[in-house]
Each structure stands twice: as C-alpha cells, then as structure tokens.
Amino acid sequence: MLKIAFSPIYKYELPEGHRFPMIKYELLPEQLLYEGSITEAQLFHPDPLQEEQILLTHDSRYWEKLKNLELSAKEIRQIGFPLSERLVTRGTHIANGTLQCARYARRYGVAMNIAGGTHHSFTDRGEGFCLLNDIAIAANVLLQEGEIQKILVIDLDVHQGNGTAQIFREEERVFTFSMHGAKNYPTRKEQSDLDIGLPDKTEDGPYLKVLRDTLPRLLDEVEPDMVFYLSGVDVLASDKLGRLSMSRAGCKTRDEIVLELCKRHDLPVAVSMGGGYSERIIDIVEAHANTFRVAQQVFF
Ligand SMILES: [Zn+2]
Q1: What is the whole-number distance in angstroms between the Cα of residue 147 and the centre of ligand 1?
Q2: pTM for this prediction
C-alpha cells in the first residue's frame, strides 16, 4: 500500500499576502482523494519527533533557541515564516512524517510525505522556509539504528540542497546529489557529493537527458540501500522563483525516471515534496499530484 504522511498541522496560517502557497498542503490530499488516486486508509498522521532524534542532526543551541522561540529577528527573517510554537511543532510532525515514510518504504517500496523536503535547514540554522531538515533527521535516525548502511539523497528541487549538503559533508554513509538551477537561490552554494547546476530556461529534453545519464550510473557507484527523493515542482516554467522551463509533463517524466529506477533496483524510496511557487495554485497541486499518481502506478 502507498502510505502517505499527512496532518492538518501541515497547513500553517500565514499573514495575508505571504508568498508561500501554504494552501497546497490542504488541496493536494483533497484532490488525490477526490479523484480516487488514494483512499483515506492510506493517510497516516505522524506524531512529533522526539528531541533526541532532532539532536542527531541539529545543534542543541539551535534547537533550544528554536523551541524556546528565541531566534533573533534576522534568523526569523531568513526562515521566512513568522515564528511560533505551532510552527516549530509543525516542523517536528513533518520531519517525523519523513522518518515514518522511510520505515514504510522499507516495507512497501515507497512512501510519501505531503510536505517536507526542508533542505535549506543546516545543522545550526534555518533559511528559505526550512526550520528542521526532515531528510537529514530521518537519515541520521536510520543510520543510528544500524539497519541502513548507505543512503542516497536525490534532490531535484530547483534550489540547491545546501543544508543537506552541509549536514552530510563529512558523512560517508550519505551521498547527496542535488540537481538545480545554477543561478538560483542560494547564491552561495554548499558542496554536495554531486551537484549539477543547470542553466536558466532549461527545458524538458536537456533536463531529462541529464537525469537519465546520471542516475543509473550514480546508483551503481553509490550502491545505496535507501533513497530519499526530494520532488520539488519549482522546476516548472510557470514557477515564479524557479528560472527553469520544464512542462508539467516533463516534471511527471522526471518523477517516473526516479521512481521506476528505484523500483527496478528494489530500493526503498521515501519522497518529500519540496517547493513549488507557480502563480496558479493548480499548476503546483497538479504537478505534486503527479508524483503521487506516478508512485501509485509504478509500485502498486
Ligand atoms: Zn525549491
């Protein structure tokens, strides 16, 4: 069964006119349920993470400041959401969603979180709408438990996974792969194990060719026993922040390439959603919905 992490707390109330399309967290499960791609029975509500799980990844000083709502005005500005207890709690539910997805993926092949992909969160700070790094937290918990030896992070959000790259810079058991717009935020990039920066306005053809040329080789070289896939849909031409020129169909083919390859290699894959900032909410929701539809088709 395709298990999907979702909780009403995922949708965080933002001030009127805020540029983050928070409503997608509500519309996406609604759409998938309405069209019959998924049923209620597939959804699960993740609990909050435990503190010691967070501290495997994040600096205790950062976590204390976050939890006690003591970040400076500048630090809060860099995160980009108004800070509140609910926002922090929400982050721990989302990160646990990704961890539980990883566990379900080992049982069912794939599992997906209707949020997450908070890859701009570093060991000791957050930025770009990211407080806690869900994939890093889940990866570190799995490694500590000792059931997983080698992890591959496939980060195809249009922005570089700078936080994830920093967190795992010295960790040989996690291979970080980020393919992103070369000229996009963050302007100062971290070094992933493999970075591919694409030129502005890259279209479906060249994008998918690079992906098809890279991924199979990467799986052979890295030999992971678990994959985390960050499926941001800010690669779309309609995206306000993205700078690339992918079509919705191209974005769907991207998901097929990743998920079919994982399936063929018998590799459990946990999917986190990542960004999407198209003008029209339907472009965002449809592209995210495709990732879920593709997973359902490929694996079940
Ligand atoms: Zn992004």
Answers
A1: 30
A2: 0.97
